[in-house]
Write the structure tokens for this entry.
Amino acid sequence: MRPAVLFILVTVMIDAMGIGLIIPVMPDLIQEVEGSGLARAALWGGVLSTVFAVMQFLFGPVIGGLSDRFGRRPVLLLSLVVMALDYLVMAVAGSIWLLLAGRIVGGITAATNSTANAYMADISKPEDRSANFGLIGAAFGLGFVLGPLIGGVLGEYGTRAPFYAAACLAALNAVFGYFVLKETVTDSIRRPFRWARANPLGSFRQLGNLPGVGPLLVVFFIYQVAFMVYPAIWSYFGKARFGWDPSTIGLSLALFGIMMAVVQGGLIRVVLRLLGERGTVIYGHLFDIAAFLALAFVTNGTLALILTPLAALAAVITPALQGIMSRAVGADAQGELQGALTSVAALAMILSPMVMTGTFAAFTAADAPVYLPGAPFILSAALIACGLAVFILRGPEPATPGQETTR
């Protein structure tokens, strides 16, 4: 593996780890700086998570557009340096407002996922992009698993320890990238930065004008909303349905993350070779519908633990969709596309938890018409079915641009 590709994968993994590292200590840290109880800490925790997602939504296209104009290298390296400083500030924060400012900056720097994906698109042949986007998904999955595990261990040394660790990881990776990352944006594909396109609405409008891309953005959004059922309600679902304790819930999430990394890092190449990108997206949707419905009605905890990693076999959808859309835009707009996808995912991250937790509450309350903790999974299955219908009915495959650009 080339050092530059390794840097990109480590960057994405650190983004995922940086979030997971601090999750185990956030309740205690917020209580520490607020001097309040757990209930108020939970409310502030929700605010911090929402602010983080809102920043990703707003700044995904900005970061992507800047990387199309100034290059991937400066944007990635500067973001890592700012991320490291941000974690240091949060490590010494003595007020909730400083933590809030830290999450605002953190949400902006985490939007560099769009630049990492754009870099991968730059160095990949069009036919290889879906598989290589899968490597990025695998790196994120690995970070998703390692972050909470390491954060829980470091939390034993104090509420600030995970922040210092995250800062060190970001700083070391910036140094590594300084020596190995070569620029991929040349003058032939460099695109002027325009604020009219460097915002979510402008970016969506621009990309939606490309034949076939608009419906794919809709499919991507629907999938992200449905997929967010896992982080939104899994811990509540496991406790309500199976009486799981936190360690079992953590184990189940780790199993899912590991299988997701295996699928996106390796198995997707086999699926793409057998089914092609279009067939892979259809297979993933059908598998997800079956997995969600199975989880909705399963009543045996052991069987649920078996189903959890199997459900990750549908994780081929995102890389395949990214590959199709990446081939449909010019070389000068790869950053813009990935920035728009970052915003779409962030918007789903904002909306989905409210919908999924509200559905869970409605079907587990004392006065619920039917006691069904798995109701959110039924909703996700219905959403996936809608996304599949849009994908199948959307019309012809987007054309791959030649030498023309999207200026």
